[in-house]
Protein 1
Amino acid sequence: EADIYQTPRYLVIGTGKKITLECSQTMGHDKMYWYQQDPGMELHLIHYSYGVNSTEKGDLSSESTVSRIRTEHFPLTLESARPSHTSQYLCASSEIGDGNYGYTFGSGTRLTVV
Amino acid sequence: GENVEQHPSTLSVQEGDSAVIKCTYSDSASNYFPWYKQELGKGPQLIIDIRSNVGEKKDQRIAVTLNKTAKHFSLHITETQPEDSAVYFCAAHEGGRRALTFGSGTRLQVQP
């Protein structure tokens, strides 16, 4: 049973539209992450957060933005979607603790921009 | 920063055989090594992890071994079953670093 929820699961949208992918967790985790997963399977970190009002860009440059106003919520926004944004987006969370770095992932949002 | 290499990228075994997936890491400061299983249409799920003060850990049919000197760690699945078919990811964490570094994934296919 998932403790981290992503909505929508699937989204098909036209070029130029603004979209927000939702991610919420009920575990009280301080750290949250967004990964982009390409068809070749690899996971690319695009954003992460250590806590409320803390956001950082990841290893892969992304035109998306994130916010962290509440501990449990970490939405990702694309102001103007393009076909190159078509991908699977995975949200994850973890505790901040010495030696405890395991992630819990959501089920993902598969985005298609036409 | 950390770099994790994972091999093979695809692996096909017969049901009942063993499967081994290997990863190497670059940063000797890494101290936590989880393995994730991703089934079709789902997010990755943690299946086993090991910390640098332990050489081996087992959980039923899966085991992970760690060789700190050589900087590599492996996932072993014994008596494979069709439901083991999935993509498996290894990862490493340096402790102070912001996020896990993932390997590139291994697609395991267990033939019935």
Protein 2
Amino acid sequence: GDSVTQMEGPVTLSEEAFLTINCTYTATGYPSLFWYVQYPGEGLQLLLKATKADDKGSNKGFEATYRKETTSFHLEKGSVQVSDSAVYFCALTLNYGGATNKLIFGTGTLLAVQP
Amino acid sequence: DAGITQSPRYKITETGRQVTLMCHQTWSHSYMFWYRQDLGHGLRLIYYSAAADITDKGEVPDGYVVSRSKTENFPLTLESATRSQTSVYFCASSESTGFAEAFFGQGTRLTVV
């Protein structure tokens, strides 16, 4: 079935380090891809998205490129800050025909940034 | 207030009791979703709804019931709570296209004792 796989955490980095969180997907059609972020005690909020192959989503210094050939959507940031500490979720949506529009998540990756 | 709100934020209930988690959104979004978040499993889809009076099962629907008589409300009922249903529950809504961002509530932390 359709699914999202992302790297296990936790990921612990020092401030200003480079971040990569890997995400790959399996989908029967052409999904839209998303990264959501969850700060402690809060709900999820959209970080960035890409709707077709080779699109690059970007926001707050984070970037991810939709790679159809490798079915990947890896999250990167050049210099992380303590305030980036959160759980990051990779997700996809597919139109299954009719009125369906499921949003499927990976298991989440905890990022801890130390000063 | 505009947005998506869940109530209650915290709930403790006993095994076997019925409990309803409420979700209300003010945007008139077509789609609404219920997820549960558990350590090691991420977010798993329980039920979703494409419009009022249209609901469908997600990945883990057993033990849960939903209804959607109005576009803005999507309550989730645990018919007979079990300890395995102890979790954090998130409601979300989105517009009707697959490209649309989903907006999440703050979550309800449910403990079944």
